[in-house]
Amino acid sequence: MSGIDLAYTWVDDAFPGYAAQLGQYARKQQDSNPNRTRDNLELLRYSLRSVARYAPWVRNIYLFTMRPQVPAWLDAAHPRVRIVHHDELMDPAHLPTFNSFALYTHLHRLPGISSPFLFLEDDMLFRAPVTPQDFWTPDGRLRVFPRYTRTAPPEHAQRTDLSPWNAALARANQLLDARFGPARRRAINHAPLPIDPELWREMLETWPEVTEHTRASRFRSLGNVPPEYLYAHYALLRGRAVAHPARRTWRDVFYFPLENWPLHARLQTALIDRLQPKCMNLNDNFGPHPHPGVAAHLRATLRRWYPEPGPWEIAA
Predict the structure, then answer these.
(1) Domain spanning 5-305 has what CATH number?
(2) pLDDT, tens digit, 9 for 90 and up, residues 10-19
């Protein structure tokens, strides 16, 4: 398997004009949750450094972002970088959008992207050498990384007391149950997702009304589905994916929630140093105000882990 591209979604809520635009449309407190839009640790920069160091086989880097945003440190003219703004792929009536679920439904439309390709959220990083075989089997099936925990059952799909994420998981389970039969499904770890564009398209076209509703939602809303979760289980049920052993998921694709607890942050980074997982997800759980000591420790750790600039970084 060769010529594999990598796609990211990214936005920076500190970019000039973003806060005013968000405030124009946000109606609920969760609409302004900075955990999903903050870039105070420059995780995308370090994720791309991890690609250069541990996944040199990646061909091109796609960044799907809101116009006119481009990271200040990224050389958008680099021959391996492709910047695609939302308005190039999405219905103008759905813009601006602040809904990652809506964005993900367009990934297969990225112009010229390889088939298959690898999708990373901007807080996912490699911590050890990886190869395509870490994400695809020799016969081309996708590898997914389940956890032991189960997701919200379908009857919770309309519960307004759940987070938008858990309600969306329940809605996805509702769809999967109706098509493939009832089951209690495992959570999927936040990890690089191998995508077959045709299978992704097939999944979206299987549930066109839900896809359209998700695309039209500026924020995560009741009735939305998380395409990355739906796709993992859809591929498994279609025989197009294999499940990584759950007992190894935590070890190979390490989930690191970023909390405002200094001791927790130091223990987690020490554990990563010991385990050297192939991938890790530094998920922002800081809330409105990241702990300054935790942020400083994480910045120093990221510089230690990834000291060499990527070839696509603008020289300081």
Answers:
(1) 3.90.550.10
(2) 999 999 999 8
